[in-house]
Predict the structure.
Amino acid sequence: MKAAARADSPRALLAFQRTLQRAITQPLGPGDRTRRTTAALAKEFIRPNDRLTALERIEIYNRMYWFRLIDCFYDDNPGLRAALGERKFERLMRAYLAKNPSRSFTLRNLCDRLERFIRAEPRWTAPRTALAADIAAFEWAQTCAFDEAAKPALTAADFAGTPPSRLKLALQPHITLLALRYPVDDYVIAVKKRDALRAEASNATGQAKTAKAVKKVSVPRAARTHLAVHRADNRLFYKRLDPAPFRILGALRDGAPLTRAVAAGGRSVKPEQVQAWFALWTELGWLCRRAT
């Protein structure tokens, strides 16, 4: 850092930190290089050396920052990449990251706003915006299922002898309920299996991995799909649900009392169906006590 740019007070240090962050996190220019317009800014607080100019020195960090974000975005969204194709996926990624940079200490949260962004700016994914939004929601739900908390699960004994009006139930934090327009669970699973087979074939023949575009796979036709994405024994699972149990679970998730949640299933729901559903959800460990 130049002597003239040294921070001699907390306020000056904060200003310097913000300037450095702005230089490091600005979007890359053509050829994934730091924009030339940053040269004047870099000279204000970076010394050149006998090998690199001030701009080249800041470029190291600028590129490291963006390449890490890009790697995470690719890793978290294989289904979306396959559905959109390489070029459209990359344009979406750069547009999203420009408006939604990392705001957390962990890149785990990088794509938490992706579904909303796709719906708000459909030009990046048209004509497959609805499909893309569903896939983004599903792939983010997998991230949540992987590392959200698991509270002590209720057992059948917890229900025995307790009046329904006194039961305060909630869903495990790692469960995400999705009402989708497309059956993206089967699609994303097929994409991952295809990619795994491709990697095995590449390793078997001794070929190095390349940056070839992901082959397009047959996208699913629209079909209303209700899913619960959850974790069990440190593994991810996806369970399809009929509309009635989906509505009951959604009501419990939203904090409804048990009697009101059951009523959300609809008038056609029979008591024996409700009993069977709750027995299954208890066995799966989906239910926990609601915080009071």
Remarks:
- Residues 163 and 258 are 10 Å apart (CA to CA).
- The mean pLDDT is 88.
- The beta strands are 169-171, 176-180, 225-232, 235-240, 287-289.
